[in-house]
Amino acid sequence: MMPVYLRYLSREIYSAVILVLLAFLGLFAFFDLVNELEDVGKGGYMLHHAAVYVAMILPGRVYELMPIAVLIGTLYALTTLARHSEITVLRASGLSTRRFLMGLLGIGSVFVVLTFVFGEYLAPPAERAAQQWRLAATRSMVSQELRTGLWVRDGKLFVNVRSVLPDTTLQGVWIYEFDDKATLVSISEAESAVYDSQQGWLLSKVGRTRFLGDRTDVVSLPQTVWRSELTPEVLSVLMVVPERMSVSTLYSYIRHLSENRQKTTRYEIALWKKLAYPFAALVMMGLALPFGYMQTRMGGVSLKVFAGIMIGVGFHLLNGLFSNLGVINSWTPAVAALTPSLAFLFAAMGMLWWVERR
Known about the structure:
Strand order of the largest sheet: 1-2-3-4-5-6-7
Strand content: 15-25%
Shape: elongated
Number of helices: 11
Number of strands: 7
Structural class: alpha+beta
């Protein structure tokens, strides 16, 4: 059975973390909604469409904000207990730092599970559904609802793309050209297409059939250019970025890239981050413990909460920085993904050692 002090501590921490998380979600939802206002009124995209879109991406926000909310919520709960001398009473009763820390890690295991569930099962499908909702609301030219893949109308061309890879490479491209009388003029089939910012889409291994009255003309081309309004920016809204993909999707795509001898660094870093990110909640709880040991005269609750916010923001920025540096400099994916968490873990250990020495 859980000791009384742990039940009391868990109740205080859970309530504080939930409060902080809800506050952050409200703040980020407001910013997201403001960001969507510039598109309201375009193509049938109304305010209620924007509100639904913002609500649908909230699971991804929960995943991103969970470690920060755990840090601030735990820090607030512990400093409040310290202000009332409750932590001092626990330590005077024989509660060692090790037992206190193990108790916090047990409480934090709930946040580890929640972060993993949101990141693996809730955020990826919610993100994809949100982008498709936005496309439908804005009456975009892109549709992905048919089994035959992605269909695009580009002037007199109707384009079918069987699959879109996360790096925006198109596979299985069919281009149907019609004249002003809606008569089929030609059909082009390409094995793949890669976007070039200067030329457009570079189609590879193209077979083109032209219908010339009572006869047809068939040609094969190793490569040709297709200029279109369809850009990677348009395609990207249909896909979840690597950081929002599930572990299984990332693993499958990394295998695909490896089999085709393509660079996998970005996706490997994202995979390692997905595996390590849930445990950041435990690191944040360990980082909050030294603040609870500090006496009230060393700073009030407000000052410590502000310090927690700065630490949380620093962790978030450092996480993104190392991911980008890892991709640019081709670092070992595990190193790029785990370094921020390990750095904060060592910082927590150092602060605990310093507090104990005092």
